[in-house]
Design brief:
Oligomer: single chain
Shape: globular
Largest sheet: 3 strands, antiparallel
Bound molecules: zinc ion
Strand content: 15-25%
Distance between the termini: 13 Å
Number of helices: 1
Structural class: alpha+beta
Length: 84
């Protein structure tokens, strides 16, 4: 994830991925299936945006292209392109 994504994946954020937390895009479930900590379910988020996602109402998912599709609390959509 750190190699795949060079910075926090929140829209417009440029915090270096090495200074970010790894976020479970789909929340980790203790009783869930194995493989939840696969790279495609992890993304770097800086502390501030990790909180925005955990305690705020921002949601996101990783789409097939590797981009991140965010939805803001007001329902606006943002796409963060995967750096190629
Ligand atoms: Zn950030």
């Amino acid at each position: 994830m750190i190699l795949r994504d060079t910075s926090c994946v929140f829209p417009g954020c440029t915090v270096d991925a090495r200074r970010c937390d790894l976020d479970h895009i789909r929340p980790y479930d203790d009783a869930g299936p194995p493989g939840q900590t696969r790279p495609d379910n992890l993304a770097p988020l800086c502390r501030r945006h990790h909180r925005a996602k955990t305690h705020g109402r921002w949601h996101y998912e990783r789409v097939d292209t590797g981009d991140y599709a965010w939805t803001s609390p007001s329902g606006r959509a943002y796409v963060v392109a995967h750096p190629s």
